[in-house]
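Researcher: We are triaging several targets before committing to wet-lab work. For this one, the compound of interest is zinc ion. I'm pasting the protein sequence and the ligand SMILES. What I need is the predicted three-dimensional arrangement of the protein with the ligand bound, expressed as structure tokens, so it can go straight into our comparison scripts without reformatting.
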Amino acid sequence: MEYTGERIDHDEAWRRRLRPQIYVFLAGPNRAIDGAIGGSGAEFVNHSCNPNLYTRVRNGRIWFISRRRIEAGEELLIDYWITGSDPVYPCFCGAANCRGYMNQPFDQTL
Ligand SMILES: [Zn+2]
């Protein structure tokens, strides 16, 4: 499925981070898509450390693609892989390989 929404730049994405519900997905250098406005439903996909979808960004468009066969009624999940200077968001997904947070893995050697 495609992650659709209003196309905004990173400055606007930064301003919108203060909303209680954030559906902004970075889509490349100075590109972001706010699924809260014109979203396809992909903006409601939850996080898991063991997701059944992966993300592809091509030409400023975002796609969620299945990693394996997904059964009817099974929840769709992606790894949010939150980057940048965002705070650490704890994860309680319950997966056996849960890393404990939704951000990208930290480099433990630093
Ligand atoms: Zn997790």
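Researcher: Any quick observations?
Model: Helices lie at 10-16.
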